[in-house]
Amino acid sequence: MDLTTLEIFRLVALENSITRAAQRLQRVQSNVTTRIQQLEEELGVALFLRDGKRMALTEQGRTFLDYAERLLSLADEARQAMHPDHPGGRLRLGSMESTAATHLPRPLAAFHGECPEVTLEVSTGTSAALIDGVLARRLDCALVALPENLDAAALPGHGLQGDAVFREELLLVLPPGHPVVESPAQLRVQTLAGFAKGCTYRQIGEQWLTAEGTPPGFRVQEVGSYHAILACVAAGTCSGVLPRSILDLQRDPAPVVTHSLREIDTWLVWRDGYATAAFQRFRGLLGRNGA
């Protein structure tokens, strides 16, 4: 069980395929297959269920992947710690969809220009999933909207640190022609289009919509993008919650009706003690570009 084998295992798990993992690793398939078989023999368990060419993790495989991610992350962090003044290695950044679309392009371009030797991996998800990823060492840092049960003062108690880097105006968006609203009782649609549970914006929207009691027939329609949220709203069937910055990106926005819910900060969060040169440079760029 060495770091090379762990990286091979990780890629097979992520790709669900020996073939695709071998291509990414630039190794022959037989070598990847042998390393996985040797690892399973060493551990005494089956890490994958084989279904033709598809490789799906077993329960033990999912458990081992969590450990492999943490070991690989710690090894990379240790290598970077040997060169505190020279950004290098890998930086795994998580972000909310809205932040990735509206706030990240400029600082990421600047970061690439200043730190070309750093391999930057960007992934998106709900705030809750991103925070879990940082704590589990699947991510090095993440841009999130703090959940209602986790305020800034509570971050150190969870092993996290954070900076407020952007401020968003959060809007309730309603179908074209919908009367302006001041309270949930004035809504004519009872469905909220939103991301999966764990999305802080959805949480805030649900709290506002049910503040006076859950309306009859209220439900959440889960979708996977802000384009889908706006499409559901424009179709007249749903309300949605999103930052004003998303509307500002639209070339030909639907004439939706908006109601301002509140302003909310986007936080950069990271594990307590995580301080590689690459991360510190990225953090500094956000501080210069943040709102």
UniProtKB/TrEMBL annotation:
Source superkingdom: Bacteria
Coiled coil (UniProt feature): 11-42
InterPro entries tied to this protein: LysR_HTH_N (IPR000847), LysR_subst-bd (IPR005119), WH-like_DNA-bd_sf (IPR036388), WH_DNA-bd_sf (IPR036390)
PROSITE patterns referenced in this protein's UniProt entry, alphabetically: HTH_LYSR
UniProt keyword annotations, A-Z: Coiled coil, DNA-binding, Transcription, Transcription regulation
Name of protein: DNA-binding transcriptional regulator, LysR family
Species of the source: Pseudomonas indica
An example molecular function term from Gene Ontology annotations: DNA-binding transcription factor activity
Family the entry assigns: Belongs to the LysR transcriptional regulatory family.
Domain HTH lysR-type as annotated: residue spans: 1-58
Lineage: Bacteria, Pseudomonadati, Pseudomonadota, Gammaproteobacteria, Pseudomonadales
